[in-house]
Inverse folding.
């Protein structure tokens, strides 16, 4: 409170005592009650008359009165959501405009915006608030374990398939498992009945990870069970003594899924020459978050050479050229007479290509018959910015660069069938004239073995696996998996979201 002469003269304070523009029904509002109390304030309080005049002048200020009136109106006005099912409405809109999106750029752009994950998350949050669907915090870690030990079902509200949420100052952790675990076969667990069995790819909610060796977790599914699982640290120690069975026998640096030898050497981390790093990578649990349906930026097809990735890529683009696209590879070789720049290849000088490679502008590159070939990162962005999903049949080592929020890939492993099936498929392709290249049994066997090696080394990157034992059926499965992305929630690496 001011102790000296107030800035507002007493005459001005007295003249502003009337409440212009205020309804008589509001004359006994909060502001008026304060003024009445000031007038009735006894002298015994010790308040100075000058201070009271100064306070009364502030309370009677037109600006303060306007703020008070605005506050009262906001209190009286109840804001209600028009509807609480906007996600369903947007799905209907997307279905309605999908047929015309292929022919109308505006409709295609609108469809793309409506399917963006951030827009979908905003609608989901709005619908939850509008429907007053406020979930209670999950039970404490002790209640999870009590339910397990007493052979009682886990409460339905114990499982949260909603990504990361703040509880008691800490966020809940959801992880995707990259190995299988059965407590029955574990001699280290203190109580086998308390263990939680899970398989590769399961999503678990980590309830308590204070113990360095054993975490408390529960399955993220309806009626999911709870129990103890080995911690990241314990499993790392255990796997450190297990000899890897990966056999890297083919030379590194090629464009089609090859992996380097076992010789130790110091080198920079390059997407085409990092097999040494891949061999020592150990991914046990991966923290993930749940996202509403959304369209990924890229589709990455991984597989051994000759397994049919390029055929599937071309079929998918031809089936829906407005939705799918791909990059044009760059090369340092000279164009042939019937080749146009930017059609099949983008032709650049070797010096320019080498400069861009050193600058890290290529996702992957290789040399064939003295000429450089590669996929430029900017060309991926160009396809994505056009509103299409960019399809890449990339080297599996490139996943280390691609599997980020920048590219948001959906990674599909095209697995080779058994040798007999692959042999029959190759023979049928020759008979119908699809290919004229004769492959020996040694070539086919190499494809099967290479497929197994890629799966063992990079399985933790794969979102989906399709065995290509029939090209038509494999294509249908690929189409179906892409459609699910726009209709079902997805678990993605937490780094994509936060």
């Amino acid at each position: 409170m001011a102790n000296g002469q107030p800035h507002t003269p007493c005459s001005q304070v007295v003249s502003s005592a009337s409440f212009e523009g205020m309804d008589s029904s509001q004359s006994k509002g909060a502001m008026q009650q304060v003024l009445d109390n000031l007038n009735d304030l006894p002298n015994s309080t010790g308040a100075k008359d000058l201070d009271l005049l100064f306070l009364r002048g502030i309370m009677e200020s037109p600006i303060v009165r306007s703020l008070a009136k605005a506050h009262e109106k906001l209190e009286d006005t109840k804001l209600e959501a028009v509807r609480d099912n906007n996600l369903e409405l947007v799905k209907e809109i997307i279905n309605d405009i999908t047929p015309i999106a292929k022919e109308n750029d505006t409709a295609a752009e609108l469809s793309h915006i409506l399917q963006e994950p951030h827009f979908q998350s905003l609608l989901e949050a709005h619908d939850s608030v509008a429907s007053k669907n406020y979930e209670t915090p999950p039970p404490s870690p002790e209640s999870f374990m009590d339910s397990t030990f007493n052979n009682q079902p886990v409460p339905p509200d114990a499982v949260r398939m909603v990504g990361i949420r703040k509880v008691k100052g800490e966020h809940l952790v959801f992880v995707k498992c990259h190995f299988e675990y059965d407590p029955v076969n574990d001699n280290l667990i203190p109580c086998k009945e308390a263990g939680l069995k899970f398989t590769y790819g399961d999503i678990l909610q980590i309830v308590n990870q204070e113990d360095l060796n054993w975490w408390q977790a529960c399955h993220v599914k309806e009626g999911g069970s709870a129990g103890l699982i080995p911690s990241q640290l314990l499993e790392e120690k255990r796997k450190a003594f297990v000899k890897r069975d990966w056999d890297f026998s083919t030379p590194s640096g090629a464009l089609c899924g090859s992996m380097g030898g076992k010789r130790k050497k110091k080198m920079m981390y390059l997407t085409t020459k990092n097999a040494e790093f891949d061999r020592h990578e150990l991914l046990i649990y991966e923290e993930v978050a749940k996202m509403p349906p959304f369209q990924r930026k890229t589709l990455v097809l991984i597989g051994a050479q000759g397994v049919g990735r390029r055929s599937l890529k071309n079929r998918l683009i031809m089936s829906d050229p407005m939705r799918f696209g791909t990059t044009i590879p760059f090369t340092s070789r000279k164009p042939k007479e019937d080749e146009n720049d930017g059609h099949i290849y983008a032709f650049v000088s070797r010096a320019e290509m080498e400069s861009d490679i050193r600058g890290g502008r290529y996702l992957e590159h290789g040399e064939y018959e003295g000429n450089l070939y590669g996929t430029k990162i900017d060309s991926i962005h160009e396809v994505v910015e056009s509103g299409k999903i960019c399809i890449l049949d990339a080297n599996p080592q490139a996943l280390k660069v691609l599997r980020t929020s920048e590219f948001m890939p959906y990674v599909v492993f095209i697995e080779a069938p058994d040798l007999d099936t692959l042999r029959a498929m190759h023979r049928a392709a020759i008979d119908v004239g699809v290919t004229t290249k004769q492959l020996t049994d040694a070539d086919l066997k190499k494809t099967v073995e290479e497929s197994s090696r890629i799966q063992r080394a990079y399985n933790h990157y794969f979102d989906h696996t399709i065995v290509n034992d029939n090209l038509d059926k494999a294509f249908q499965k690929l189409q179906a998996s892409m459609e699910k992305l726009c209709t079902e929630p997805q678990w993605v690496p937490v780094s994509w979201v936060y």
